[in-house]
Write a structure and sequence with these properties.
There is one protein chain. By secondary structure, the chain is mostly helical. The chain folds into two domains: 209 residues; 59 residues, no CATH class. Helices cover 73% and strands 1% of the residues. The chain has ten helices and two strands. It has a two-stranded antiparallel ribbon. A hairpin with a 5-residue loop joins strand 1 and strand 2. Helix 1 runs antiparallel to helix 2 and helix 9 crosses helix 10. The longest helix is centred in the last third of the chain and has 45 residues. The termini are far apart.
Length: 284
């Protein structure tokens, strides 16, 4: 027996420390990728998860059973923050049916926690089933969502969530021999799948930044190259053989905005009376 041999409670404290550090890292990512929605949700997810592990460790002196309830609630909040981050990052907005889904999920959770105390196996089964539905749903949403299917981050995040859900399903029916080491290993994989899915979401942000940079480069090259322009009306032909005014063509491909004025030569040509009056005022 080495000094590194751990107990489950000590492992929970270790998970709490790891999740806290990852939550801080996501705060920095949120600052670096200020235009992205996901990092703020994912930071909250790990902070809630870390706090849940802290209560599960038994470090906080509470009435027996209460530490489990608070830890469970914090973990549930963390899971929802993780899924909400993936949902919003995928370009989805909140819709009325989201409230019905979340409300049904919470209702079953409340029934499992408070009304099935005398049925520990059924209670545990329902709680695991709720987690499985959450993880599988989030993973399939990312894999089948509007983001390009070839992105590495999409595959890592989506399949990690699916694997997390499937592992939770296996965890319901089968466990390793009950020893501190095997229990730590089993729970370690549960935490590991959450970390893997979040790393996939970080890579999704990198993929999106890379795609935007590539699109910007294409637009710059298009503006710097030769443009087919009509000799008479000065409209520009795009890559789809459609014709646009110069203003519209440039505004759709850059951040440039136009406001129209009249140059001195055109003022003399089109507004000779006004121009003559201006010259007279200058001479006087």
């Amino acid at each position: 027996m080495t000094s590194f041999y751990d107990t489950l409670n000590n492992s929970y404290l270790g998970y709490a420390a790891v999740f806290l550090c990852i939550g801080v890292a996501f705060l920095f990512l949120r600052r670096a990728a200020s235009g992205e929605i996901g990092p703020g949700y994912w930071s909250a997810s790990f902070f809630f998860g870390g706090a849940g592990f802290l209560f599960w460790s038994g470090l906080v002196p509470l009435v027996p059973g209460l530490f489990f309830l608070i830890g469970e609630m914090l973990h549930v909040l963390g899971f929802f923050m993780l899924v909400c981050g993936a949902y919003r990052f995928s370009g989805n907005g909140y819709k009325p049916w989201n409230l019905f889904v979340v409300g049904g999920w919470v209702l079953v959770w409340v029934v499992s926690i408070f009304l099935l105390r005398g049925y520990p196996y059924l209670r545990g089964f329902l709680l695991k089933t709720l987690r499985i539905a959450l993880f599988l749903g989030a993973g399939l949403m990312i894999l089948e969502g509007p983001l390009p299917k070839s992105l590495a981050g999409r595959r890592l995040s989506g399949w990690s969530l699916v694997a997390w859900g499937l592992y939770s399903l296996i965890f319901v029916f089968w466990q390793l021999p009950s020893t501190p080491a095997s229990t730590n290993l089993a729970f370690g994989f549960l935490a590991g799948f959450q970390i893997l899915s979040s790393l996939g979401m970080v890579i999704m942000i990198i993929d999106r930044i890379r795609i935007r940079a590539k699109d910007s480069e294409i637009k710059v090259k298009r503006l710097e190259g030769f443009l087919p322009i009509c000799s008479f009306c000065k409209r520009i032909r795009d890559e789809n053989n459609s014709w646009h005014t110069i203003e519209k063509y440039i505004m759709e491909r850059s951040d440039t905005e136009f406001h129209h004025i009249v140059c001195p030569d055109c003022a003399k040509t089109h507004y000779p009376d006004f121009d003559a009056k201006a010259d007279k005022e200058k001479s006087s």
